[in-house]
TrEMBL record:
GO terms for cellular component: membrane. This is SPFH domain-containing protein. It comes from the Bacteria. Pfam families: Band_7. InterPro entries: Band_7, Band_7/SPFH_dom_sf. It is found in: Membrane. CDD domains: SPFH_like_u2. Its main location: membrane. Keywords: Membrane, Transmembrane, Transmembrane helix. Residues 64-232 form the Band domain. It comes from Novosphingobium aerophilum. The chain crosses the membrane at residues 12-33, 45-63.
Length: 296
């Protein structure tokens, strides 16, 4: 399919042509008034008949060439179905009366997509929706290369969101890979790039986009919540044990370096066990006072 590219159309200021229109209207009125107050000859009658035919025809043709363009609006100019260019100059404009004018907005548009059910990278069903800010950047492509560019945008947004949703996992408790929930900037940037690639054929540019809804599908939401809780507990326990081992190692090292107490292997193991219980326990430890010796 041949791609249509926008180009600048010829047009002129409508205010200048409005002055011409008013001048011709005044001339027509003057001719009628002058003719009515005289006894014309045959040549004057012929001239009058010619003027009252030609001047109204000229007025009609000039009037048909007027059109208005508002800020951030454009008009595609056609000649018997052939594209002749686009006029983006705001205000009152004028082109030849046999030219067609198709107005199109180039303002920013905002679309919030429907909630879609998609399987993420791991096969989990999720619900996902996005917000997209788009605008027409090439009026010729939007009008002549696709049938309905607004419907085209809606369909391509749905396709792009489905593609992005299936490209990444919903979540990763260990934060070792890109996820839909944890990597918003990267996912949004990739979604925008995907949309611009898909909408380029329609002359549409996406200025901003982002996910507005992201959740597990209702049928697995409860199970995935319990899984997240379990993974969070495991991760917290892992960090707690790592910290406790470091603290125990530090305590034993400092006791040895400062010669606070000499411990054999058995008592060292007992101290390590007690410290680990105190540091890793969920409840506060109850101290036990030893009134004897260290080995009793």
């Amino acid at each position: 399919m041949a791609s249509t590219r926008e180009r600048t159309a010829w047009s002129t200021s409508g205010y200048l042509m409005l002055l011409v229109f008013l001048a011709l209207a005044f001339l027509l009125i003057l001719r009628v008034v002058t003719f009515a107050g005289t006894e014309p000859s045959d040549s004057q009658v012929a001239g009058f008949l010619g003027s009252i035919v030609l001047l109204p025809l000229a007025l009609v043709l000039i009037a048909k060439g007027f059109y208005m363009i508002q800020p951030n609006q454009a008009a595609a100019i056609t000649l018997f179905g052939a594209y002749r260019g686009t006029d983006r100059q705001p205000g009152l404009r004028w082109v030849w009366p046999w030219m067609g004018k198709i107005r199109i907005s180039v303002r920013a548009n905002n679309i919030v997509s429907e909630k879609l059910k998609v399987n993420d990278l791991r096969g989990n069903p999720i619900e996902i929706a996005s917000n997209v800010v788009w605008r027409v950047s090439d009026t010729a492509q939007a009008l002549f290369d696709v049938d309905d560019y607004k419907a085209f945008v809606v369909v391509q947004i749905e396709s792009a969101v489905r593609s992005i949703g299936s490209r990444y996992p919903y979540d990763d408790i260990e934060h070792q890979e890109v996820t839909l929930r944890g990597s918003h900037d990267q996912v949004n940037a990739e979604l925008r790039e995907e949309l611009n690639s898909r909408l380029a054929v329609a002359g549409i540019t996406v200025d901003d986009c982002g996910l507005t809804h992201l959740a597990y599908a209702p049928e697995i939401a409860g199970a995935m919540l319990r899984r997240q809780q379990a993974e969070a507990v495991i991760s917290a326990r892992k960090k707690l044990v790592e910290g406790a081992v470091t603290m125990v190692e530090m305590a034993l090292t400092q006791l040895s370096e400062k010669n606070v107490v000499e411990l054999d292997d058995e008592r060292r193991a007992t101290m390590v066990s007690n410290l680990m219980v105190v540091l890793c326990g969920e409840r506060e430890a109850q101290p036990v006072l030893n009134t004897g010796t260290l080995y009793q």
